[in-house]
Amino acid sequence: MLDGQGRTIDYMRISITDRCNLRCRYCMPNGISWVPMEQILTYEEIKALAIEAAELGIRKIKVTGGEPLVRKGCPSLVGMLKSVPGVEQVTLTTNGVYLEEYVEELKDHGLDGVNVSLDTLNPRHFYDITGRDDLKKVLNGIEAALREQIPLKVNVVLQKGQNEDEWMNLASLAKERKLDVRFIEMMPIGYGRNYELIPNEEILRKLEVCYGPLKKDMQVHGNGPAVYYQVPGYEGSIGFISAMHGKFCQYCNRIRVTSTGEIKSCLCYEDRISVRDALRANDTEEVRRRLALAIQNKPAAHKFEIQELITEQKEMSSIGG
Ligand code: SAM
Ligand code: SF4
User: Fold this and answer.
1) Entry pTM
2) Pairing of strands 227-230, 215-216
């Protein structure tokens, strides 16, 4: 469906849990007080929501969290969403710790792609950033997804004074592996507000110093706003998601659903429309009406550049990234 600005909205990110096994310092360093399970949408409710969303033109779904793989039965949810008429693609965003364990099941349920968030290849930095010692497991997860030939992207958030010097090592993951590495600019949401931004242009410039002018890769790689470049000798591409320095709101195609069933049409603002009660009352018409309302009223643009206009107070873990 078209939103109020005439943009086609065909992509929905669903957070299936607010819980996580890591404690990323810019996301939920101290954990959060978990939402009681009875407030979280069941898999049947998520599927019912996806059916209504597909009726409105949603074609691609991303399963996210918190950490989606800590919720029992996540691969079966992937299968349930794949069975929804009109849904063409179901993908997953994960920190990768449990990926090796679940990768076969995910593949069997038809997963179309996986994004692994990985900010460092240095075990000490990994511990500093995530509060856990799980780098090896994430790397095993990446190799396992490659073996299963599931399309794979590695998402990197560079942080000043932490992993900013690792851009080359991280980009190099795409050198000998068929995966894309994407640099995501830190957004001023939750603890992300405390970080000084590293502009993606800076990383692109540094890459070009090493490899010469890079050609844009015009192939479609995913659902969103990343701009990709081909690097000579690399198997995969390097992508940049520059929410801050390359505002892409006029192309935004997405809505988000929190684990408690609130529809959120822009990351920047606290506005939400709940569909949980309507789902629990089996009122499919009302679910669709509220979804349509959220899409219709999707803001024209974020205002991340003006602190006072950012009304979203929740952490990224409860929104799904
Ligand atoms: N736990 C999963 C993971 O880490 O991929 C899924 C949820 S996590 C909230 C989704 C993505 O949001 C991760 O790639 C994470 O790096 C990113 N993220 C969290 N806070 C962010 C922020 N303030 N700015 C930019 N990206 C952020
Ligand atoms: Fe967990 Fe993902 Fe947030 Fe890290 S970024 S704390 S892995 S939800």
Assistant:
1) 0.95
2) antiparallel
d(CA 316, CA 321): 5
Instruction: Please tell me the residue having the least CA distance from ligand 2 atom 4.
Output: 24
Phi then psi dihedrals of residue 81, to 5 deg: -70, -35
Torsion of CA 247, 253, 258, 260, to 10 degrees: 150
Q: Is the CB of 18 under 6 A from ligand 2?
A: no
Per-residue burial over 145-178, b = 16 or more CB atoms within 10 Å of its CB, e = otherwise = beebebbbbbbbbbbeebbeebbeebbbbbeebe
For the chain, the domains span 11-319
Task: Give me ligand 2 centre to Cα 12, in Å.
Answer: 19
Residue 74 CA to residue 63 CA, distance in Å, equals 9
DSSP state of 133: -
H or E stretch covering 204: helix 200-211
CATH number of 11-319: 3.20.20.70
pLDDT along the chain (321 residues), means of 10: 94 96 94 89 98 98 97 98 98 98 98 98 97 98 98 97 95 97 92 91 96 89 84 96 82 94 92 96 98 95 84 80 81
